[in-house]
């Protein structure tokens, strides 16, 4: 509990500092100080991604049930990070006058959440079906990137807050710069989750390598379980709505 309190307090401190920097840029054009402080956005994004949400469980579940290698697994985490932050930037830039109407509550986009969970549910069903069919097939090309994009459709609330603040002060470019560094931090945390998941999965598969039949059954079970978890997450979100 204390750990999460420290993370939240850390985020609040950086957010307030960035808000002050954006006010300075808007009032006096103090870009030099803002650029010097900008790398703190990476720490901000990394810490923010540690908090509940950000589809870490979905990312780990999918990668555990897939057979993607390290590079493709990292690609999934990067796609998730990029989409997660980009959605906030687009909402702020393209729909700022309609934010109060399009967001069900501050920092949320219900329609995008519904779309994201529905698509993940479909992916979950696909993984279950694939685990039950004969192994004489390959994974759909680009499936991992699709999962990353789908999971990232839910916008990042804190990026949206900063973007809205920057636009209201007349310096949207400052908000975009912050969003970029924020994305790097989020990607750092999610990539760590991806690497840890793939290493654990590969180690487990290595231990079972000399038992081909058991390995095949284990791979099928893990993939089916991952699919069921994704489906359960989607159904739970729909039920709670």
Automatic annotation (TrEMBL):
Pfam families: NicO. Keywords: Cell membrane, Cobalt, Cobalt transport, Ion transport, Membrane, Nickel, Nickel transport, Transmembrane, Transmembrane helix, Transport. The chain crosses the membrane at residues 31-50, 71-95, 115-132, 144-168, 174-200, 221-239. It is found in: Cell membrane. GO terms for biological process: cobalt ion transport; response to cobalt ion; response to nickel cation. It is a multi-pass membrane protein. GO terms for cellular component: plasma membrane. The keyword Ribonucleoprotein does not apply. It comes from the Bacteria. GO terms for molecular function: monoatomic cation efflux transmembrane transporter activity; nickel cation transmembrane transporter activity. Efflux system for nickel and cobalt. Belongs to the NiCoT transporter (TC 2.A.52) family. This is Nickel/cobalt efflux system. It comes from Aquabacter spiritensis. The lineage of its organism: Bacteria, Pseudomonadati, Pseudomonadota, Alphaproteobacteria, Hyphomicrobiales.
